[in-house]
Design goal:
GO terms for molecular function: GTPase activator activity. Among the domains are: 89 residues, no CATH class; 146 residues, Immunoglobulin-like; 179 residues, GTPase Activation - p120GAP, domain 1. It has 23 helices and 23 strands. The strands form 7 sheets. Strands 8, 9, 10, 14, 17 and 18 form a 6-stranded antiparallel sheet that branches.
Length: 823
Amino acid sequence: MHFKDNGEQLQESDSEREYFVYAEIYISNAAGISLPKYKKQEDSRSKDSKSSWLGFGKGPAGSGHWRPAICKLTKEASESILFQTVYIHLLRQTDIRPVDNSLFFRKDCVAIYSTQNQRWTAGGDAEHVYLQFPKPELRNLWISLLRSFAVPEIYGRWLTRSSAGAGEREGGSYRMWREVQLTVAQGRNLGIRKVYDPSQDPDDAENEVELKDVDVYCDILLNSVVCAHTTLKKGLGLPEWHESFTFSDLPPFESLEIKIWKEKKFPKPSMIGKVTIDLVTFRRGEFLEGWYPVQNTYPPSQLQLGELRLKVRVSEEIILPHTSYTVLQQESIVLNTRNLLLWMHDLENKLHVKNLLQHLTHLAIVQETIVQQIQEAAVWEVEKAITSHQTMFRGNTVFTKTMEKCITWYGHAFLEASIGGVLRRLLAEKVAIEVDPLRSGKSARDVGRHVDLLTYWCKEFWEQIYSAREDCPRELCAILDRIRTLVEENGRKADLSAQMQKQRPWQSVSAFMFLRFIVPGILNPHLFGLYSGLPDPAIQRSLKLIAKVIQSLANLNTADRKEISMAGIRDFIKDNMPRMIEYLTAVSTPKSSMYSNHRFEDPDDRTVLKNLAQRKATLPVLERESVPASPHHIDPPRELAIITSAVIRHSRDINNRTRCRRLDDITLERLCSACFEVEEEALQRVNELVTRLAQERRRASASAAWKTNAASLSTSQSLSSVPTVAPRRKQSISSSHYAPTTTIEIAPPPVQKPQSDWVTLNSSPREHSHISTEVPVDDVITKWESPEPPVPEVSDDGAKRKRSFIIRGIFGSEFKGGGKSRH
């Protein structure tokens, strides 16, 4: 019998799952060729007694050697097989990433990208590993767990640094983060052959060609790996996708390719051409939109086969330890002194920064202050709208946009429960509804059938929406309760009719829950992860009609649109008015606590979470911060780095690029000054790393040159025919002798072994199935391709450009060897 530490008896499934034993394994000379050399440890047995067991070195038994090993026996299902073993400790953290839903038309998938030397597979083909998890929380947990054992992209790891205040080891100078946001909008003239002429107006060229009817889709490749697909579109060379993709936590940039394929029933799709974008030289931090030529993949390469309209944003940030951003987050300094909506208003209107709302919201979510800040801002918003009650919460203000971000963040599972299943059923059945006789050109009888069909699907959607009302997240209930209460109070002050005072509180709730959440999810399911790509126009029309009816029901109005004047729809809205009030009451009634309790139900998942926390506690600061914490899995230093970078770009003084320009807002100037302090520290860290590397490389080059020269002197003396020894004298060596003739890879000084740039083989994982053995080896080091910045002493312009790209500052600037920044 087996027992746990607390005395509880283990079940058979617990006690017989895995068995371990320490032993020694015999390795023949033939098998040992492929293994690193093993240095035997001193044996504890007496040397006097070795004569009895040391003399067996000859014969068949002496044709190999023994090594310590760990044998693991794993109990598995009867039909399980060992498919692939991936050595996580050999992977980079950027090799473990979420998968876009379009790749397999599945949600919550994870990709583990590895090379042949980083895995063992039962088959001959080397394939990447793709896993699907039952829910996003579990997917995020396992991404964090796997990344905690992988190699983070940390630079300056062998520089000794301690975190300010806590005295912890930082484990490096900084880490890197990259992201690509891509929107494939539309194509034109796809498949039309013409010689590429950059001087010709594309609109004029379009009139010269005859369009072809083709069915096309696109593959999106990052660094030659397929990461996403667009949907298949039909059209006369003018397909429209309007599909957006976000690829985050990427490895060092190489290229972005969009391959356009023409669908064929037989034998297989054929490639029309491709668009290639060099990400290394692409402008950072800004959306760039335009038409990109589709080039032929076969000679002649200058042949153009149409164009794609793309919108691309490339982001790359240096991320410092979290303590380096303290100047931005102390209680009495900058960000924490004001409501995030006030910051967003000033940043948008005074600095013209448009893309920071999401990052500011993420910081508030991590700090669990987002609900309180929105509730506080709701007071101002309702007071401003007291004179314009007809358009309350209808415009795109900072408040409504922040509410949209908050509802989308907390309500993704709630939206799936509300409309996900019925929406995909309608799309799968390709339901086409048209109740306008002018559009369809059909008889009154056919139109009547379509009205009945519309009524049926409205009921289906509404029943699922209503059944999920109790699943509304706690955070949304608290915010909507505050908004409804404020509207009620302000309604009494305004000169409104009794009917208006009764309806306005409920309409304020539906303005967010339906107008900005559920109805947009029905109209554009691809934007909320409910479906991949835009549906066909006929199905889009069906969704639009359903959305109109549901929105009319949420507005508590029975006569505001032409479609709902039909008898069946009008009766549906009238009959469900009481239930809509019940729904709005349920989603705006606060629950016991303001924030959700994110707890895994499965004990195994809780064990994984506990072990992850214990693992992170042992890591240096930069490594620990590179693995976002549960439950939100938000990286605060990354969010602060992005905010700092954007503020710097929009506030830099033209005449003095190391400080912000003069602003007419003291609070905003304090924020900008704090951001420039962070920039100064970032440049100092990069400069320190580059200087140290240059010194190490020069020292190594000088040592190699000296050894080469000494060897040549020794050879010349041995070949000399003079038997006497020449008197000792000083010998000058030309400076050219110190230039090595080959490229020498220099390891950091042996004070501290870097764990990111170097990997020890004795840390190989123990996740083999069946009976597996693990053989510890010497401290043999396998070197990754060095991520450290190259030596700054270069004369080639291309090399300088590459160097400045690699050590690019956190503000989109290019760092030079002397520590200056250029934008």
